[in-house]
């Protein structure tokens, strides 16, 4: 996907989401978390699909032997997480019309957390029930699920990162002055990183929000090293050129969207 195609996709997705919001009665701040959660679900499903053939092949190869492992174990090794059936995006798309879509999304999030305890309490769940206020808003939630299914199956993590950042920026703008509480414009973060020049060592962000400082620090190091991937870690760095990033955030909604 080239830059022009990505820009068009971002515009189309935002237009669909923003038009649907008119039928929910939700404020932008209430609407943002459920929308960003659906983007996460689509990203997780895309990533799992790419690894699924290898996961199933390994599971079948080991089945019945001394080294037999569960599908979930193999998935975590090869993909980083396991998606049971109720957490698959296709499952949400194919729900019968009478099903409670908010409850189905909550169950999907809980299933992901069950097999990846590090995410426990992080993913949005109860927020989706705010769409149950009226029949119209319940329809909106399902329409949102359908809208994000338009993200191509071959979309990479970088593509999702840009879509996510695009939506964060749009929600921040719609919130006006308070929008800066959960999103700092990318141009501002880039300038800060250029001033800091984090070639190696540690970067600490006391108000990390959605992690923009960490992403731009990685981009800075990659660019300065001629495009090679840096060892961006979440553990204390060895005595080399690794870059260690860490931060904190007082607002739980901001932290959970990072």
TrEMBL record:
InterPro entries: D12N6_MeTrfase_N, DNA_methylase_A-5, SAM-dependent_MTases_sf, T1MK-like_N_sf, Type-I_RE_MTase_Subunit. The keyword Cytoplasm does not apply. This is site-specific DNA-methyltransferase (adenine-specific). It catalyses: a 2'-deoxyadenosine in DNA + S-adenosyl-L-methionine = an N(6)-methyl-2'-deoxyadenosine in DNA + S-adenosyl-L-homocysteine + H(+). Coiled coil: none annotated. Residues 156-250 form the DNA methylase adenine-specific domain. It comes from the Bacteria. Belongs to the N(4)/N(6)-methyltransferase family. Residues 9-148 form the N6 adenine-specific DNA methyltransferase N-terminal domain. Its EC number is 2.1.1.72.
